[in-house]
């Protein structure tokens, strides 16, 4: 047991949670696609397959990656020791039990009880270190994690009461909260990665007002989903999403450097972040009555934005924090392309062809499968 606790994979949060999250990303989408095309038995998890898919993508897959990233980043920000050994194993087991709970023949209330502890525990671990170190500039990240836990409670309450509308509100709010978190983290690390990766001089400090407006607008958008305000088109929400999309475009314009297109670890992040702008502008079009399907905006954010940023980020973080050169293999570069194609298929092909869903799922699973092929050994072995 002591050997397990001291194994390299449990030395820091990114190692087990990146592996678990990437593996779950591939398995869960494969299961969802096979069910969609009628190739699974009639037996379904609590609440049905749609409820399972809606819940598990933000609260299973994305939450695992968020945990791995923040459990690694917060020790760097605070100078305090990161979670490792048995405390880290215990948190991972809480996450794993929540995934397995869907397969158990239990009532909805019991499912809720098994699902809920993970995000509050994560918030407590992160908050303990941030407060102790006085890192108030990172409190917004803690706020987003806490709000994510609240949206999970809303979603699970909808599942336990068979309220489909409540489920949908909770899940959509969670997806846009994760988008808000991606905008906060991306706004910090992407320009830094570009500056370091291309050996450019440090840029002049940017006025903080656009960043604050973007965060506040993104949180308001998430709250509007939780409140059910996006069920019908509204002019003021069209304006809100237009502001969000415009601020994302402003960032992309500021960050752009022709050199990024020669560096896969940079263009993968840049193109994935661009999906955040596409998703916000698509929502603005829907509220303006110019786009028929709101789900296209949602999947722009979920597949292209969140999925793309996660794959690009975990590929870079895994190399950097294991002491390896920031030179991705051709395998993972292919994965970046496949994830981009998955987003394009889900958003632009699905309205015209039923094969779009199958292709999107296939490319998504292949992309995260390639990550596992290339990085499992990296994450299991000691730092170089």
From TrEMBL:
Coiled coil: none
Top-level taxonomic group: Bacteria
Residue ranges of the TM segments: 12-37, 57-74, 86-103, 109-127, 139-159, 171-190, 211-229, 235-253, 265-288, 300-319, 331-349, 361-380
Pfam assignment, any one: NnrS
Keyword Cell membrane: no
Alphabetic keyword roster: Membrane, Transmembrane, Transmembrane helix
Protein name: NnrS family protein
Organism: Pseudomonas hormoni
